[in-house]
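Study this chain:
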Amino acid sequence: MSGDHYAAVRELKQTIVMHTEFERVLDAADDHIDMAVKAGDPISILVTAAPGMGKTALLDLVARRVRQRFSSLSNDDPLVSLEFGAMVDPHKLAAEFLEALGFPITPARTNLETITRMIDTALGRIKPRVGLADEAQHVCEGCRDTTARAVTDWLKLRMDRHSLVFLLAGTQVLQRLREINPQFASRAPTDLVINTFTYGPAWHQLLDGLRLNVKAVDMAILCDRRVAKPVFDGAFGNLRRLKQWLGCSSYYTLSQQRSELARADLQQGFERAFGTNSKVPNPFGEGA
């Protein structure tokens, strides 16, 4: 048996399960972007989800499809990919935009107007079709509505001027943008939500997908309904929490020189992942 106790952890991290809920949002985003780009109308999208429910994975798959589909419409990369920082303002967003367009470094002591001209020149030359923004909820957090309006007004002008379709992804806080800047929101009328799992077919589909994709540890036990339900309860239906738990459990399995995940491994993994003072009892602890 391999001495690599972290093999299953890496496999879990890399696995994207196309469960029904995730696929629904991915296909809707894909169809919307396809229509908007081909029509030359930059109608954009807001995608929201609880932390740990796969927003970044969704953006990665959308990016892959955009590059496959629209490379011929651009002089370089058809995609601009951004990540909003915790204290984003127009100048910081412009600097991030500049870097995404291939500029190695933002010129020192350059005002926003100058950077914006550089960006508009680059956008006119490269002709990207789609923009993706992760962690976009940061623009709505705190008592910073004036800054949020300025950021989204700046972004709105780039969208309008260059027919750039944007997908902004974030937590549910992102919905505040509709109140903060209705003019921007009118250009992104479509809301897509990756819902937290409820216990049912989608959850079993997720567990089965993980079982099929992880090869370092046999996770067949997850398909047992007597195990799947307490796993759901302990993970709160959250994908990231589930992967953290299973990663620690599979590490314990392999460290014991075994290859098949067992209830005892799930018990140990829960404590390793969430400590002994978790807000919910260990579903596989003593007396469970």
Notes: The CA atoms of residues 37 and 129 lie 6 Å apart. The longest strand covers residues 165-170. The domain at 40-194 is CATH 3.40.50.300 (Rossmann fold).
